[in-house]
Predict the 3D structure of the following.
Amino acid sequence: MGSKEQLFKYLLRLGDNALIQGHRLSEWCSRGPILEEDIALSNLALDNIGRAQALLQYASEVEGNGHTADDLAYRRNERQYFNFLITELPTGNFAYTIAKQLFIGLYDVILFEALCKSTDVTIAGIAAKAIKEAKYHASHAGDWCLRLGMGTAISHDLLQNAINEIWMFTGEMFEMTGWIRI
Amino acid sequence: MVSQIKYTKPQVLRMLVDVRDPEIPVLSIEEIGMLRDVVIHENSCEVIITPTYTACPAMAMIEKDIKLTLTAQGISQVKVTTVYAPAWSTDWMSSDTKEKLRAFGIAAPLHSGCAAAEDRPTIVECPRCFSTKTTLISQFGSTACKALYRCEKCLEPFDYFKCH
């Protein structure tokens, strides 16, 4: 694979993670446990869709086939998406979503801090923007983990069960794809 | 090369003072830091903007408002370019801008980079009664760029423009 195709696939991977995560979060819109949390989760969804838009826009420019960001987001077959499995897990209950948010949020902070130093100026630019949002996402999930974990026996168990179930999906985040060195 | 655009960059910047953030109509896009540059080309005028948040839903409306404003002044070829770098920061707001925010009922950002837990603002002043006895209700308020607080003195809820 040429480096252009490697870059394209890498951008798809970054973009797909944000896209799928954003859509899963948007399922909470109008179904949040409390009004403030409904708004918060919808805002987190929006940040992810914005990030997906920026990354897939760049992917479409790198590909150079006349596809738009929307074409890449919505007109591929399901086997042509490169997102981590953790992002497409069902929404589940609130504790399950918070557990997912914690793992993904903390990973995103590490990832985008590193990508801020990318030699690709467009990726570095998007990362510099994404890191600010990712920090808020991680602190939101962290707050709720404490609240649920130290809340009632029920909230504690719901969160612990979610962590136990989702933990195994985090390994994929650290697998080398061999697509690109950044 | 003589541009067919009969206005200078400072003149175009003055015209754009009327373009507002629809969520915060007291601030122009320059005051909020979204307007990055104006470039006068041979036959067209290019306006460079940056979003506050990557998914800022006001971007399409702002782009349309820029085009409408400049077209009304006789500039027929207007191009709006969105850039992500350098990443928008609330540090770009002047103290005058922050006071406009407060008068509008939104507590102004205290400092930058306070997303990390240890840097979180400890005291956010109520924009209405100036009490410092306030409580964070939600990190994400009416829009992604604002958090929701409640004043324990006047009991009013209010938005806090988050540091970014």
